[in-house]
């Protein structure tokens, strides 16, 4: 039922932006930002469930806690980056959106390096 609520909220924002685009085009970016913040507010419940499930998974599997924190950071970077880039694209700033997306991809890549190195060390231990 949440997906219907979020979809309707998004469609209402698009319709409002469409009507204001002809008369007050500068307000469309604010409408997009407001709708996006409202949708992120609705997603907080989903994030709470995700963190709770990751906590349960961490308790049942003996894996370093830092890996879970890194995973959460990666998810956060991708969502915030996608949200910010989408707002920039809607405002007509495609170059800024592309730079945000590039920075987010590089940040995720940097965060994943320690995990990749640990995985390679584990594989190397099995091979020797």
UniProtKB/TrEMBL annotation:
InterPro entries, per the entry: Spore_III_AC/AD (IPR025664)
Transmembrane helix listed as a keyword: yes
Keyword Transmembrane helix in record: yes
Entry keyword set: Membrane, Transmembrane, Transmembrane helix
Annotated transmembrane regions: 6-22, 29-47, 67-88, 100-120
Protein name: Stage III sporulation protein AD
């Amino acid at each position: 039922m949440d997906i219907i609520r979020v979809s309707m909220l998004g469609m209402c924002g698009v319709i409002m932006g469409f009507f204001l685009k002809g008369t007050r085009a500068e307000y469309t970016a604010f409408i997009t930002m407001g709708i996006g913040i409202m949708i992120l507010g609705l997603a907080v419940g989903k994030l709470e469930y995700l963190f709770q499930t990751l906590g349960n998974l961490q308790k049942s599997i003996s894996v370093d806690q830092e890996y879970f924190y890194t995973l959460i950071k990666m998810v956060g970077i991708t969502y915030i980056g996608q949200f910010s880039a989408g707002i920039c694209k809607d405002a007509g700033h495609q170059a800024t959106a592309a730079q945000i997306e590039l920075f987010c991809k590089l940040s995720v890549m940097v965060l994943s390096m320690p995990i990749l190195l640990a995985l390679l060390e584990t594989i190397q231990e099995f091979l020797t």
